[in-house]
Amino acid sequence: LILLSPPPPRRPMAVAAAPDSARSSIKVGSGDQDPAMFQDPNWQALKLKTTRYFIPWDALKRTNTYEKDRAITYVTAARAAGVNVLLHVSTDNFALKKAKLPSLAAYTAEVKKMVATFRPLGVKEWGVWNEANHASQPTYKDPKRAAQFFRAMYTAVGSKDKIVALDVLDQGGVEKYQQRFYAALTPTYRKRAKIVGIHNYGDVNRNRTKFTASIIKTSRKYNKTSKFWFTETGGLVEFGKSFKCSYPRAASRVKNVFSLAKKYKSQGVEQVLLYNWFGEGCGKGRFDAGIVGPDGQTRATCRELVKLRPGYSR
Predict the structure, then answer these.
(1) pLDDT per residue as tens digits for the range 23-51
(2) Residues contacting residue 55 through CB under 8 Å, at least 6 positions apart
């Protein structure tokens, strides 16, 4: 298995407990690809009980077992920490518009292997395809195939576990993608598509509600009982030219995550998964929405989360 070194020990920040009656029922968790998160004192102080891990769709068929071992290490560490894992199927190539779309038969075979491998390790939450409408994913031009993948996942998993049927980024054209996804489902499977994942970095970091609102509205046209998980969201520390490095801005924007969740709770928002725990560090122009630094150093976002966390469920 892949064993990763934990960050250096740090004194955890105190999190004040809130009375149960004062807490929102919205669950809060954090996603990351590094199991060292579970050993970070700042993470432990927050007492989070849910996380998300994305795995290449073909991880279990590869001769090189690196991705499989890495996922098993993460899920095992999460279970030891008493944390539920949303295991989210994703691309095998994040280069824009380069990944090859798996056939339905290939996807079905791999999902069956994943269920057989990870369910015994405690996984009970599954994502059909990560950020299906983004150009880094081979599903971005084929919502019909994404719908077929949902049916395959449902068949493999059954009705007892939870499935994120559709997972989308808040970008232009998302409503059309959703419409084509639902059009490819029978009425029965529309009812079974109970959970929709939303990546709303745009709304959160640009102080909008536009796409979060429209994604929820569109899904509820097809399934009035749809529930929504913010499967990937957070305050951007740095991202390309659009978001220059700023720790205070990221901390401010993470408050928007919770404002949006509360605003749309009555319309089905159930869960928030902040991504990611360990940032990459500023000055690289790359994606960084880390709650702490690459070495576990506390950031302003973490201090803000300490204030916000007590008002929500685990």
Answers:
(1) 899 999 999 999 999 999 999 999 999 99
(2) 67, 71, 87, 88, 89, 90, 114
The dihedral sign for the CA sequence 251, 252, 258, 260: negative
Contact call for residues 68 and 59 (beta carbons, < 8 A): yes
What's the pTM value of the predicted model, to 2 decimals?
Answer: 0.93
CA-to-CA dists, residue 109 to 76, 112, 119, 150, 232, angstroms: 23, 5, 16, 13, 27
* 269, two tokens: 């928002």
pLDDT, tens digit, 9 for 90 and up, residues 124-170: 999 999 999 999 999 999 999 999 999 999 999 999 999 999 999 99
Counted residue by residue, the chain has a size of: 314
Task: Write phi, then psi, for 274 (nearest 5 degrees).
Answer: -75, 140
Number of H helices, E strands in the chain: 10, 9
- DSSP letter, residue 5: P
Cα 302–202–217 angle (5° rounding)? 115
